[in-house]
Amino acid sequence: MTYQNNEERSLYEERASTWVGLLGLAAAAAAWQVVRLFTAARAASGISSKTLAERMSVTEGRVSQILSGEGNVHIATAARVLRAMGYELTLTAVPVDPGKPPLVLNRRGPRKQAVARPDRAYDVYAQMFLTHEGPRAFPLLVPAHDTLRTTPYGTPVKLGEVTISDRGQVRPIRPIRPEWQAKATEKPRLATT
């Protein structure tokens, strides 16, 4: 539509001619629909402003502001108001351009392909720690090529090397000393020096 001058356009057409105006009109239409929902829910539930204020833990003045649409009502606030009146807020979006497809919310997006990561290499050390039973050696997994510091109870002893896959599978690279091939139910001990 071509207009000869601005006087021939309505206020709506003038606002809708720019993105800022168009977005403002969309916000105003949504706010108007929320106020209509509040009015219909209040009429259907028969709830008083005092009861609604008590349920929402706000003042009656704030309830009046919300129900009249004064200010910017957040979606979460609208959901709480409607729930306090016994209704649930549901949202939907419809395409405004003829070529836009409708939104489908229940369809899952394409699955991301798993990226194969290389197994991580670790060094297995025995480190002395003080426990309630006295000094005791425990196995430690340390990322490969990291160094451990000496503790008051001795220098860590390297026992072997392993790799661990993303699924948690442990594969020895270099054999682990037999004293650390522990059963699943007991912790192995090293002889203390």
Keywords:
alpha+beta, four-stranded antiparallel β-sheet, 2 domains
Report strand %.
15-25%
Total E-strand runs: 4
What is the CATH topology assignment of the largest domain?
434 Repressor (Amino-terminal Domain)
Number of helices: 5
How far from one another are the termini?
A: 94 Å
Which class best fits the helix and strand makeup?
alpha+beta
CATH class of the largest domain reads Mainly Alpha
Biggest sheet strand order reads 2-1-3-4
Low-confidence stretches: 182-193
Order of helices and strands: HHHHHEEEE
Q: What's the mean pLDDT score? A: 79
Give a written overview of the molecule:
With 193 residues, the protein is of the alpha+beta class. The protein has 2 domains: 79 residues, 434 Repressor (Amino-terminal Domain), CATH 1.10.260; 61 residues, no CATH class. It has 5 helices and 4 strands, in the order H-H-H-H-H-E-E-E-E. A 4-stranded antiparallel β-sheet has the order 2-1-3-4, with no helix packed on it. Helix 3 packs across helix 4. The termini are far apart. The C terminus is likely disordered.
List strands and helices in order, with pairings:
Layout: H1 11-15, H2 19-45, H3 49-56, H4 60-68, H5 75-84, E1 120-131, E2 134-143, E3 157-164, E4 170-174
Antiparallel strand pairs: 1-2, 1-3, 3-4
